[in-house]
Design a protein that fits this description.
The structure is a single chain. The protein has 17 helices and no strands. With 300 residues, it is mainly α. It has two domains: 81 residues, no CATH class; 186 residues, Orthogonal Bundle (Hypothetical protein af1432). The termini are far apart.
């Protein structure tokens, strides 16, 4: 009886400690900067069917640094236009509203996370993983004729933003999580739960909600490890789940662990990814990654 009470007390203490850690994270989340007013306005107007290319251009060009980065990406080899895009109005007309919205959004999100790594986490290798996942997500989205391959690309870029939060705001704890994942050969999200009490996907979801990101992007961020839990945007969640795994199989960048889980049969069936389709996606991924230097250098 006494032994049972001791175990019960230990369990209560563990639950209390975990709740304290989660509350600490939520407290730190309040200090997270908001996205710029320009980007908030961009998200708002793109959803309005009456918005013109000039309307969107007028909003973005208020921010000169954002304008310069969006134009640099639009003119990169990744998009491969034979002529130079000279202004945002032209970029909107050529690339489309969703692409420009997503470029502006991605630039602004990663502007929040600046500075050197404090946990031993390589920003460059992490970002390569994000770009690889984004390209792979876009390839899968085009294959299944998903309504917005551009949004799948952006969800791939942003799927691990919870790790950025940990790295910047909880670097000591995250160093321990990275060490645990490496030494025990377990997924980083499992190590995060053990050390911090919450994983990067849930933190990313909280960030997406704070910033009012579009619902499909939030799904890709929140459910990229467990797409079966997603209710509203199940296709997007499965796209990012599969893209993340394929990117790791290809060895592109580093996302915090070296554990590669299989793509579930449920996801393969939903997205039509058999062995032949997987090989084709991997081949295209390797080719397109060579054209993505501008995205890999974007946070710099």
């Amino acid at each position: 009886m006494e032994e049972k009470n001791e175990k019960s007390n230990e369990q209560d203490e563990r639950i209390k400690a975990q709740e304290d850690r989660v509350n600490k994270i939520i407290g730190k989340m309040k200090a997270l900067p908001t996205l710029s007013l320009v980007v908030a306005r961009v998200i708002q107007v793109v959803s309005n069917p009456l918005t013109s290319a000039k309307d969107l251009s007028d909003i973005i060009t208020v921010d000169q640094a954002l304008t310069a980065k969006v134009l640099r990406l639009a003119n990169s080899a990744f998009y491969g236009f034979p002529f130079r895009i000279k202004n945002i109005t032209q970029a909107v007309s050529i690339l489309g509203f969703d692409t420009i919205r997503n470029l502006a959004l991605t630039v602004s999100v990663y502007k929040v996370f600046t500075g050197d790594s404090n946990s031993g986490f390589s920003h460059l290798e992490f970002w390569k993983h994000c770009v690889g996942t984004a390209i792979c997500a876009s390839l899968i989205a085009k294959k299944i004729k998903y309504r917005s391959p551009e949004s799948a690309f952006t969800a791939g870029l942003l799927h691990d933003i919870g790790k950025n939060f940990f790295e910047q705001y909880m670097h000591k704890e995250y160093r321990d999580a990275l060490k645990m994942a490496k030494e025990n050969r377990i997924p980083i999200e499992e190590a995060e739960k053990n050390v911090i009490g919450i994983d990067h996907a849930l933190v990313g979801k909280l960030m997406a909600e704070k910033w009012n990101l579009p619902i499909e992007l939030k799904a890709g961020i929140a459910s990229h490890h467990h797409p079966e839990l997603e209710q509203e945007e199940v296709i997007m969640a499965n796209i990012i789940f599969a893209a993340n795994i394929l990117c790791k199989k290809k060895g592109i960048g580093f996302s915090g662990d070296e554990v590669i889980i299989p793509i579930s049969e449920q996801t393969r069936e939903l997205l039509g990814i058999n062995n032949e389709a997987e090989i084709k996606i991997m081949d295209h991924l390797e080719r397109e990654l060579k054209e993505a230097e501008a995205f890999i250098n974007m946070p710099q």
